[in-house]
Prior knowledge:
Helix content is 14%, strand content 44%. It is mainly beta. It has three domains: 3-130, P-loop containing nucleotide triphosphate hydrolases (Rossmann fold, 3-Layer(aba) Sandwich), CATH 3.40.50.300; 143-222, Translation factors (Elongation Factor Tu (Ef-tu), domain 3, Beta Barrel); 228-309, Translation factors (Elongation Factor Tu (Ef-tu), domain 3).
Amino acid sequence: MTTGVTVSVVGSNEVAKELGKKGTSSDVTLYNAVRDDHAVTLVEASQFPEKFPPLVTALSMGDRCLLVIPELNRAVAETIATVDVVDVPTTVVLGTAVGEDELARALKGSRLERADRQPLDFPQLRTLVETWRAPVVDGPTIVPIDHAFPVKGVGTVALGVVRRGTLRAHDTLRLWPTDKTIEIRSIQVHDIDRKDASCGERVGVALRGIEADEISRGQILAPADSLNVGATVQGGPFSKSRYYRGDLRVGAQLYLMVGLQAAPASLDAISSSATTMSADRPLAFAPGMPAYVLDLSVPSGPRIVGRFEIRA
């Protein structure tokens, strides 16, 4: 049985390349390390800190996170604040320029205060990530797409990770949030042809019924009637980042990220029991998914506002 795991490597863009071979690159860059029947995909926010959404994208793609702290500066402080909100299981990797006392002050009061810590030692980190596995989630197939492109002689190819269930060749799935129905022509897992792919495995799928330029990041391959679609997203109480310095109020123009989907959105309601936001385009979602809220215009402090859990 093959297994896979996706690891977000944030805080430094000099670490992932030491742990895997470079693959797909855009505003996030992927590195791959395959050993025996286990594949590790490392995701780096290569355009952060110039652009903020890639950091949240990289964290949203990960089953686990390596938070690398080579030094304490503004970008690292914003990364710490964001990892604190996104809440992916995290190991803190400490560089030689940061002492334990400095680190303790930087993480005090956050969920990272008690996170596992490791030195910035590449052989040790390689051994560590090879022990990690993606959680197995049963249910209807879900594959969020992070990249898509045309391949000569093959057609449209999309890349993503199986997040729930099992993906099989010749499955007919809906491309959410659109109403398009698509056939999975073939599947590759790290360049190996496969008849199916399990939860946690990174796949390249050849698609029938769509052109590559019709696909955008965040769209989801899943069966019909398995997700919800709407521009209005409602959820539970809003959990505000303790580091956010902006003015959070009804009517605020913000940025909403659900899975790998991202859209400008307005804050319609916020209270101790509920949150409602309206995006400028329909999004696909399911109850229980986290929604992350960003403020890309805040003049100082981190651009992460907080999160809420989607109810319907």
